[in-house]
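sorry for the late reply, my laptop died twice this morning and i had to redo everyting from scratch. anyway the thing you sent over, i finally got around to it. pasting the sequence first so we're on the same page, its 89 residues, then the predicted structure underneath. double check i copied it right bc i was rushing
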Amino acid sequence: MNRTIATIATISALSFGGAAFAAAPMAGMGEGYDMLQTALMSDFERLGIPTDKLDHLTLGQIAAIKGIVDSEDNDTQTQGQIEAIINNN
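ok and here's the structure:
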């Protein structure tokens, strides 16, 4: 009986403890997404792309767009590549 209670207590502690550890990286991902989204807003405005489009993109798409913005391409090429990503959403 004592072993059963100890086993249940251990399993419960591990289950809830694992959930706490899993939630921490998810919070960090949300912050990273928000930071990338904010960083791209001025670039979208400069290129004439509506910033509301950012709300519908995945983290992968935003990261790809950030890479395009940071490239050596001219504004016309950059805008075309970004609009292609947005249109494939």
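The mean pLDDT is 77.
thats about all i looked at so far, will dig more tmrw
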